[in-house]
Specification:
Largest sheet of chain B: 7 strands, mixed
Radius of gyration of chain B: 19 Å
Number of domains of chain A: 1
Largest sheet of chain A: 6 strands, mixed
Oligomer: heterodimer
Strand order of the largest sheet of chain B: 1-2-3-4-5-6-7
Number of helices of chain B: 12
Low-confidence stretches of chain A: none
CATH architecture of the domain at 9-169 and 209-231 in chain B: Alpha-Beta Complex
CATH class of the domain at 9-169 and 209-231 in chain B: Alpha Beta
Structural class of chain B: alpha/beta
Largest interface: A-B, 82 and 86 residues
Shape of chain B: globular
CATH topology of the domain at 9-169 and 209-231 in chain B: 2-enoyl-CoA Hydratase, Chain A, domain 1
Mean pLDDT of chain A: 95
Order of helices and strands of chain A: HEEEEHEEHHEEHEEHHHHHH
CATH class of chain A: Alpha Beta
Number of strands of chain B: 7
Helix content of chain A: 40-55%
Shape of chain A: globular
CATH topology of chain A: 2-enoyl-CoA Hydratase, Chain A, domain 1
Distance between the termini of chain B: 39 Å
Order of helices and strands of chain B: HEHEEHEHEHEHHHEHHHH
Number of helices of chain A: 11
Low-confidence stretches of chain B: none
Mean pLDDT of chain B: 96
CATH architecture of chain A: Alpha-Beta Complex
Strand content of chain B: 5-15%
Helix content of chain B: 40-55%
Number of strands of chain A: 10
Amino acid sequence: MDWHAVADGLFDRGHDIVAVDDLLSGTGHCGDTAFAVVGSTNHAEIGVELTLAMAKRVVATMRDHPGRPILFLVDTQGQRLRHRDELLGIHRYMAHLAQCVELARARGHRVLALVYDQALSGGFLASGMMADLCAALPHAEIRVMNLPAMARVTRLPEERLRALAATSPVFAPGAENYAQMGAIDALWAGDLATHLMAALRDAPTTDTRRDVGRARGGRKLAAAIAERAASE
Amino acid sequence: MQSYYEATARERIAGILDPGSWHEILPPTARTLSPHLKALDLPVAFDDGVVIGSGALEGLPVLVAAQEGGFMGGAVGEVQGAKIVGLFERAKAARVAGVVLLLETGGVRLQEANAGLIAVSEVIRAICATRVRGIPVVAAIGGKFGCFGGMGIAAGCCTSIVMSEEGRLGLSGPEVIETAHGVEEFDSLDRALVWRTVGGKHRFLLGDCATLVDDRQPAFRSALAQAVRTGEELELASLEREQRTLDERLERFGAYTDGEDIWRDLGFDKPANVPLLATDALIALSKRLRAA
């Protein structure tokens, strides 16, 4: 999915978002609200440089535009799987980004995310999954790992996983399953600007995903177990 | 059991907390087991591979979660993640000096796929939210399976990390990288290479763990207590400092291909000897080099 079309749909009053390599950044205007936009494109592999560039943008927003909402536009094939990234401590770069998002939230920035193409595991954890509210376009793909690789790692037969994926939101990729499990708030079809403003209004400031997953029936135990661990 | 590396999750808790102070929450008798593993006819654990509870660490009231590497390599599934998240919820209400995470994990439990990924995400958010409230979250890494995947990010979000030389910390495990790009990219069977890349000493020299300790439970115990006492708050100034630190790291070390290159740049004239140095000697030497 071309990010230009997505950005044009979201920001009815215009935007100055640019792509530099795989990094998206800029400001978008929807109604009277300005959004700091940060994200990735070209199914980016998220390595140390890109992670740091995204964090820098969040830090700058906190410093220069206190309270301005932040929107992550997510398109990633996951973290970059290279020796160099591990040597340099990519986990810490990702943790830094995650903490930047958390602090932004604590300082009164609403943080939203839209998976407009694909989202995979590590590349998604420190960005979209840290947001107050994460939405997806209906055709978006969200997954931990593809089924053949999952079959290799878990030593479970691929046919078995394929059969499970057909019936269980736990195994199947796809934004719809993540919505059932509570990690995606909604699939945005139609007018994106309307969805964006509604999300800005309704986004929770605490992590309610396990409650949503329970209410939608896609993740039955997480909320109940967490409640017991908190109170028993 | 003196070795942290060899100990089970419960032995680590016994080795680290003040005697008689431990109270386990949702113990195995609560039978909180994974519905997803059961559906796959895989073995389950009554605690789902994580032990949570409250206790005292050198007199400090703390909440503790300890992952059991012996069960699915400590991988996080729906139930395990929910137990840890619930513990952090508890930290909101209880008067605690900190939350201690004894991490040993490969990250997302792939047998629980999407549920595992979301669980890890909820743990990361719970750690960050707890820190924002001013409660320190400290992590220990020194077990056989290291700390990888999304839980490597979780560790990085903690106030402070205590590691032993035997500990390993990263995002993508060496096997995952080798599978993706071949043995020339990362030979996962080359133990020395693995330790030069993700091992405790390298993480300490880079500053990714605040404290390096010997593989002894009492050493972990006092380092964790110290980490709880000195917890730094999460604020804009600290994140701006971190931004500069990580920027400078890329600038200074970004072209290197091996841990030894980095250690040489840090001032170790015989980087090949770093793996041979005793913990104390390494700490003393790195202090001298930093002062110079």
